[in-house]
């Protein structure tokens, strides 16, 4: 098939550099796929490609393009089938690996065999199993048109996005349809839809199991917050071990200053905190975690993170990120 041209006309030479062209193309956000097949030896072959697009609904056709210099060109131009795996937001590392040379792209990758043995990658948000219908050489790429024999999707999953050389995940704009799967109480009832109640219940769900971990360290809930805040302060200000004033600490742990003053003294006696004179104002006391305090904080933070991952394991990365951003907005009073 020959491309149609306006008779007797040819394009003007470009008035931009290849770099400009790349950067301009980069303004078009795409998803990211890994296109896979089997070579003559039956080994899996695959590469990252963002050039995927739809062509036709009837018959079901899709396209993608492959650089002429690609190592996998022979496999795709001669093979009968390939699979297009649309990557999920948590598969960025896979996208990078399947674009890299000199690495074992398939090490530890879980997949099943699709049409013609083309690997269907576990965790993809969608797969298209394609018959290798036609190919068109244009410029430095070959356009492959695939006829889709089977397709599948994970409707609740968030896709990986790419533009301008960076990976993203999606954020719906305002006015996006509400999540129809979210539970809603019948109209007129107050408690189940009241924000304060929901936040309280959610907080209970988050802390239910973690409270035991805090108690196992012999700490109260506020003492845990003190250690967590000082842990973060040490990361932000390693030059003074993250020492902060008691007033600031009380603010950060959501407790009254006299309560925190007493607690800090007790934790210092237990060897978890060090009390230091403020070099800028000798009358003021600064508080920092000791090595033992930091050790306990690190152990609890690890458990808190594991418990959070477990709680959110059925949420997409996008849903979890959106929830946290909304809670931060609410907490900041915006
Ligand atoms: C996000 C992303 C999208 C890419 N899209 C394409 C593409 O559509 N076509 C292509 O030929 N290469 C694309 N590449 C580059 C290939 O993945 C890369 O050149 C790879 O090494 C080719 O593998 P091969 O040489 O084994 O065929 C992309 C790379 C990245 C990171």
From TrEMBL:
Q: What is this protein called?
A: p-hydroxyphenylacetate 3-hydroxylase, reductase component
User: What Pfam families does the record tag this protein with?
Assistant: Flavin_Reduct
> Per the database record, which ranges form the HTH marR-type domain?
192-332
Top-level taxonomic group: Bacteria
Entry EC no(s): 1.5.1.36
The record's listing under InterPro entries reads: Flavin_Rdtase-like_dom, HTH_MarR-typ, NADH-dep_flavin_reductase, Split_barrel_FMN-bd, Tscrpt_reg_MarR-type_CS, WH-like_DNA-bd_sf, WH_DNA-bd_sf
Answer whether the UniProt record assigns the keyword Kinase to this protein.
Answer: no
Provide the family line.
Belongs to the non-flavoprotein flavin reductase family.
* Top EC class of this enzyme: oxidoreductase
Alphabetized, the UniProt keywords read:
DNA-binding, Oxidoreductase, Transcription, Transcription regulation
> Sorted alphabetically, which PANTHER family does this protein's record hold?
FLAVIN REDUCTASE, FLAVIN-DEPENDENT MONOOXYGENASE, REDUCTASE SUBUNIT HSAB
Keyword Nucleotide-binding attributed: no
The record's GO molecular-function terms, alphabetically, read:
DNA binding; DNA-binding transcription factor activity; flavin reductase (NADH) activity; FMN binding; riboflavin reductase (NADPH) activity
């Amino acid at each position: 098939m020959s491309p149609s041209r306006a008779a007797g006309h040819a394009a003007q030479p470009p008035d931009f550099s290849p770099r400009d062209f790349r950067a301009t193309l980069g303004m078009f956000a795409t998803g990211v796929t890994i296109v896979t097949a089997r070579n003559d030896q039956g080994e899996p072959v695959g590469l990252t490609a963002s050039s995927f697009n739809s062509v036709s609904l009837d018959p079901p056709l899709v396209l993608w393009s492959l650089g002429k210099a690609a190592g996998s060109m022979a496999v795709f131009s001669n093979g009968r089938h390939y699979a297009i795996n649309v990557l999920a937001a948590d598969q960025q590392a896979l996208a990078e690996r399947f674009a890299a040379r000199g690495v074992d792209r398939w090490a530890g990758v879980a997949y099943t065999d699709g049409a013609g043995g083309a690997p269907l990658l576990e965790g993809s948000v969608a797969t298209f199993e394609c018959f290798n219908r036609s190919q068109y050489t244009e410029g430095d790429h070959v356009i492959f048109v695939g006829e889709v024999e089977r397709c599948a999707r994970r409707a609740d999953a968030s896709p990986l996005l790419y533009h301008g050389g960076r990976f993203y995940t999606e954020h719906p704009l305002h006015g996006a349809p509400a999540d129809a799967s979210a539970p809603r109480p019948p109209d007129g009832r107050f408690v189940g839809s009241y924000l304060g109640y929901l936040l309280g219940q959610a907080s209970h769900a988050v802390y239910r199991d973690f409270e035991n971990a805090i108690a196992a360290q012999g700490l109260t809930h506020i003492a845990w917050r003190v250690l967590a805040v000082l842990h973060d302060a040490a990361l932000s200000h390693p030059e003074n071990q993250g020492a902060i004033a008691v007033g600031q600490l009380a603010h950060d742990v959501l407790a009254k200053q006299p309560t925190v003053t007493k607690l800090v003294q007790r934790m210092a006696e237990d060897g978890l905190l060090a009390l230091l004179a403020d070099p800028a104002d000798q009358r003021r006391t600064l508080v920092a975690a000791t090595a033992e305090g930091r050790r306990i904080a690190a152990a609890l933070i690890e458990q808190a993170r594991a418990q959070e991952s477990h709680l959110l394991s059925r949420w997409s990365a996008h849903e979890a990120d959106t929830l946290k951003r909304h809670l931060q907005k609410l907490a900041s009073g915006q």
